[in-house]
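Researcher: Can you fold this with pyridoxal-5'-phosphate in place?
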Amino acid sequence: MATNQEQQSFAPDFDRSMPQYLWWNGALVPWQQATIHLTASFWTGVTAIFEGIMSYWNADAGELYIWQLEAHLQRLLRSQKLMRQESPYTVAELTAAIQSLVQALDAREDTYIFPFCYPKGGGNFESSTGPGLQPVEIAITARPNPSHLGKGWARSACVSSYTRISDNVMPPRVKNIANYRNSNLAMAEARIDGYDTALILNPAGKVAEGPGSCVILVRDGVIVTPSTTDSILESISRFSVLELARRELGLEVVERPVDRTELYIADEIFMVGTAAEILTITSVDRYVVGDGQIGPVTRAVEEVFHRVVRGHDPRYAHWSTPAGLAGR
Ligand SMILES: Cc1ncc(COP(=O)(O)O)c(C=O)c1O
């Protein structure tokens, strides 16, 4: 099992892919023409929000299936609300925008879709503090991002010395760019100290999540995971995996506060997230998890998840939106 973090970064590769178009404020725009003045970028991260959405190519159907698109767009609108942003587009309009983009790109491969809502004009540290809703601009990119499901990826983790942001600090349930400084600090510390990734505790000292993913433990055959009030993002992968574990694998699922030392004695641990997909944790603070390999529950969850996200199980068709490439 490979453990080299260089080969295992699940952060979508934003540097090397330069698609022909992106969607920007209501229209498809050639990539090279989508520019703003440098100074308008200075403060956008303070209040900018985004979504990360995976879409999976199904060769049999000749279709790209956008995973949980409606749930992601509803979360985007909730992030806009919490950030006091205007919401110029409905879920249906954003769905059509994303479909038009991937169709224009003829994206016949696994693709990462990134809607980004930032303050109109660039904003500053007072953005979203006025009485009214703040005007926004929206850009959406779609770039190749091959799935690593079934490839045996695994990671070592440490418990970070950084505390997870919390609801009264910077609410983790908002997908706000600024929140990722916390993830970034934890990840940097982990890598400099020789681990692949970090698990971050919340202010109560309980397990929260990883830098860009939620965390799930298997203890005596039971799925255990921090609850949505434990300083985590309301993860769509987490919700989907818990549903599949219950329905398809008949597993008991418990959402509750998780102690740090439960990580050390868990039978299996895996991360879940749009980009992380399903990612095995083989050790935490050098305590080997289980036998240090991908465990049987993780493997079963990954198999069912992969089948469903790629559009091979019609019972879950309502979780996937066809991009509209079939027959074109
Ligand atoms: C901090 C954080 N937690 C959890 C997740 C997983 O959320 P989702 O499954 O909705 O992608 C993400 C994003 O992928 C994240 O950035």
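Model: Folded with pyridoxal-5'-phosphate in place. The helical segments are 5-8, 44-47, 69-82, 91-105, 180-192, 236-249, 260-265, 296-309.
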